Amino acid sequence: MEKRCSKASLGARGRCIALVVLSMIGSALPLSGQALKVLAAAKTDGFEAKVDRETIRVSVCSDVVVHVVATAGDAGIEGASPQQPWMLDKAQSCPGAKFEFVDGIEDISVSTSKIRVRLIKKTGNLVFTTESGTELLKERPAIPRTYQQAEVDGQKMVTVEDRFMPDLTEGFYGLGQHQSGMFNYRGSTVELAQHNTDVAIPLMVSSKGYGLMWNTASFTIADNRYPAAFGISAMSANAVDYYFIYGPEMDGIIHSYRSMTGHVPLFPEWAYGFFQSKDSYTSQAEVLEVARRYRSEHIPLDCIVQDAGWWTKRGDMQFNAQYPDVPAELAELHAEHFHTMISVWGLFNAKSTNLPILREKGFEISTTEVYDATNPAARDYFWNLLPGPLLKQGWDSFWLDASEPDSGPHEADALLLGKTLTIGSGNMYTNVYPLLHTGNFAEHWRQDTETKRVVLLTRSAFLGQQRNGAAVWSGDVYPTNWAFQHQIAAGLNFALSGMPYWTTDVAGYWPLYPGASMTTPEFQKLYARWFQFGAFSPMFRTHGHRDHNEIWTYDKVSPILLTYDKLRYRMMPYIYSLAWKVTNEDYTMQRPLVMDWRTDEKVWNIADEFMFGPAFLVSPVWKEAAVKRDVYLPQAAAWYDFWTGRKVAGSQDLDVAAPLEKLPLFMRAGSIVPLGPEIEYAGEKPAGPIEVRIYRGANGSFNLYEDEGDSYRYEKGDYSVIPMQWNDAAMTLTIGDRTGKFAGMVENRTFNIVLVGVSHGVGEAISSHPDAVANYAGKAMTIHLSGKNGATHSL
């Protein structure tokens, strides 16, 4: 029979649809159990098969990607939803590749040079293997796919599910950002529905070397409660619809994902510096006072954030009386080399002047006070109402809070369920809002100016959002060690969801628990530990619902904070080069260990260590009052303690001393790490010497990327790359010919080269005795090093 549920009966997470038994309208098996009737036909991009009452289409998108769409009966086979704005056009997302089609006795198959997909005639399930036959994943033989009818708030829909049989030894990752603290999802259930602190991205990757992109924005459940079975279901979809992606390495999977949904633009250089924020600065005078003190005390800072507190009513483009001259405020901040970010919500205050206009135009999501970002006309209206004028006023970036969307405190949970959107049913497009909201900003921004790169900070995300110049922060989390631990795992899975830019509120957002105080050693220690982690996040920022939240507020630990702030700024040549690698090569900067050591089972469940780029192994200290922590060093030629230069072997567990001032950092042998001079903001000393630290024990390479720091001229080739190669046996560093150029490029550079050893080339401080000094003018040069600490050679 047909089951009806109201939104109210769905509960906080929509479990009614997930748990009720609904009428079956299609399955892979005939009800009587007789042999399947299978009829297959080759297509220009793969094959289509009739399997009793199902139609299954397998399309070859590339050598490593296939698209599977299955529907009940003979209905059209367009996909899970009529519109899929997260995908690029088909010429980009599924261009095709050479394949071989075989209609055999036992199966129907397509094979590329890398993978093979087989439809088993006896059971109707799909099996995915490498081209050589190694099994990667298979749908379960008994009723692999189901289609069930239901109705929610008068909207008829079909709930679809696909069931797989994973290998008994593999880990599952990705799926967005969640607060369970779990890294490897094996044996668990994950609900994908946008919520404050919980981000739904239906891309899962496996340690076995494949990824699965569930191609729908509907409320989704990924269910592996029984570890030998993995089911994934969509509440409202026209078809089972997914992409199977072979790596085998996770970087390859993410490359394919971004090739289908969009590549990542480059932030301006300043956006990789430090962001100062709190909830909230409430006057122009307060913002300027904070900025002046940062500069007068020589504390590195690039961006000051204006959170809520500037408007008269949210949704109206009117600063309150505490901001008497915003252009003058921005002029002073820019003169002191600060950049600015301002909070803009898609949610209107009930008493705002513009809400009635929004409603009159039909641009509001029904029964909410949120503009409909799925409506192109509403997007234009919203941009011209708020962000467009703010951008023209001189603000440098936008904070898109509550982008799930949220209609008020704690009402962000799958808000679009039961709503009618311009794009279609809110049940079918439950999770799409943040993609289209950030896309609205990115598209209009690029139309308005090419001289300032898009920088957005937002609280939610969906497939394809990485193309919009948007970073995500983990939402309104709590100021506890428990919450800190869980943010690490959340961020690592977010990275494995194809999203490279992520951050947190250092020490949490919410006020402290009753009886606690910001002045206590316990909270200040938590702040210091979280700040250390923040310095090795893709974006580095502090925020929180606190009266004061600047570095000097935390007087008991401020010297520690300053050390890591300065270290972040010394790392800017390294970080900005990694950012280019993200844009140019689909790289991931914050890297769970499973990315680089996928076949090492010991890393599959490590949720609190990660690589920051190719060199730094970071082990945040999240346990309260801890002064040491266990660290697993994966296989490598060697590792070096960043703080001491002591060399240790890989493939071992260590008990590492971690006093409050020390974040355990280990450097992989073969790493080349460029560190800039001490600066207070990005671009302060463009011609300053660069210290090149080399960690011996293996060959290595690094490409130093430089451009003018902002504008989109880099897309037209206005940038330079200086390649560096370390030959460990010959003890030589080759700095290759510089490629490219840009306006303002430093033609002649000084590289201070340091061979790291015990107490030599360690910590944040500039090394006073480099092993060689290279005066580089853009032409290739090779520097021979003796490895004798303190020996200086000018070339």
Entry summary:
This protein has 15 helices and 45 strands.
Give a verbal description of the structure:
- The protein is of the alpha+beta class.
- It has 15 helices and 45 strands.
- Strands 3-4-5-6-20-17-16-14 form an eight-stranded antiparallel sheet. An eight-stranded parallel sheet has the order 27-26-25-24-23-22-21-28.
- The longest helix has 16 residues, at 433-448.
- It is globular, with a radius of gyration of 27 Å.
- The N and C termini lie far apart (83 Å).
- 54% of the residues are buried.
Structural class, by secondary structure, is alpha+beta
- Helicity, in percent? 10-25%
Ranges with pLDDT <50 over ≥5 residues? 1-24, 26-33, 789-795
Question: What does the main sheet amount to?
Answer: 8 strands, antiparallel
The order of strands across the largest sheet is: 3-4-5-6-20-17-16-14
Let me know the average pLDDT: 94
Question: What is the number of helices?
Answer: 15
Shape: globular
Report the portion of residues in β strands. 25-35%
The value of Rg in angstroms is: 27 Å
- C-alpha termini separation: 83 Å
Number of strands: 45
